[in-house]
Design a protein that fits this description.
Shape: globular
Radius of gyration: 17 Å
Distance between the termini: 47 Å
Largest sheet: 4 strands, antiparallel
Number of helices: 8
Strand order of the largest sheet: 1-3-10-4
Order of helices and strands: HHHHHEHEEHEHEEEEEE
Helix content: 10-25%
Structural class: alpha+beta
């Protein structure tokens, strides 16, 4: 069965049948999921920095010789993001200095593209230049809605997640996506990014056979297990 052009970038489990599970590389590496961490500002900052340092290996990739040296480069959580926001319950540290392709490799996320595969949807969705804190909702409330419709209905202070922000959300909060074989399966659409050269396409991150994968599809349509994740826009960022 051949896949059509509109399905280029989709995981093989979606493009062909029957579904075939693949090796769970992420779990073979022994990286335990990080539960949603609730605590004061310093505790959350330290916990997420340690996630990137100890489990993912980002700091060593950047040349830091100690956790303390890496932590010193991580900004304090802005006061505007400290209060619990029920609409955006996930606090996420976005590490921008490694690059999308390498971050996926370190985090065990399959990504068949490169750092040039995606572009921002518009200026408001440009990737951050330095590590930044964001508040996120994982897109479950937007399931079975096309990405273009979600963009139109976002609040004035709401932005779709970019691919880098989506990967970081998964690394800190693996529960943001759910295995596609489950009844409650969930895949995050990342509407802040577009496949280069296709304004109608969309990026997404999901879990197939225990393996997290970042992909894209040509053409935007509603899918029952897919929903657009987003973040609260904060002017202090």
């Amino acid at each position: 069965m051949r896949s059509s052009k509109k399905d280029v970038g989709l995981p093989k489990a979606i493009r062909i049948a029957p579904f075939r599970q693949r090796a769970a590389v992420f779990f073979k590496r022994g990286r335990p999921p990080l539960a949603t961490f609730v605590g004061n500002s310093d505790e959350v900052r330290t916990a997420q920095a340690k996630r990137l340092w100890c489990d993912i290996g980002v700091a060593r990739e950047l040349g830091f010789s100690s956790f303390e040296a890496y932590l010193a480069t991580i900004p304090e959580i802005p006061e505007a993001l400290l209060k619990h926001d029920p609409g955006f319950p996930l606090r996420v540290l976005v590490e921008t200095r490694v690059g999308l392709k390498r971050l996926c490799g370190l985090g065990g996320v399959v990504f068949p593209g490169c750092d040039e595969t995606f572009v921002e949807h518009d200026e408001r969705h440009r990737e951050f230049a330095q590590p930044t804190w964001i508040l996120v909702q994982d897109g479950r409330k937007n399931r079975n809605r096309a990405v273009r419709d979600c963009r139109k209905s976002f609040a004035k202070d709401e932005l779709g997640l970019t691919v880098l922000q989506g990967v970081c959300t998964y690394l800190h909060h693996p529960q943001a996506v759910t295995e596609m074989t489950r009844v409650d399966s969930h895949v995050m659409d990342l509407s802040g990014s577009l496949p280069r050269g296709d304004r109608g396409g969309a990026a997404f991150l999901g879990l197939w056979g225990g393996q997290p994968e970042l992909h894209w599809y040509w053409g935007d349509r509603a899918r029952p297990q897919f929903g657009s994740a987003s973040r609260r826009e904060c002017k202090v960022l």
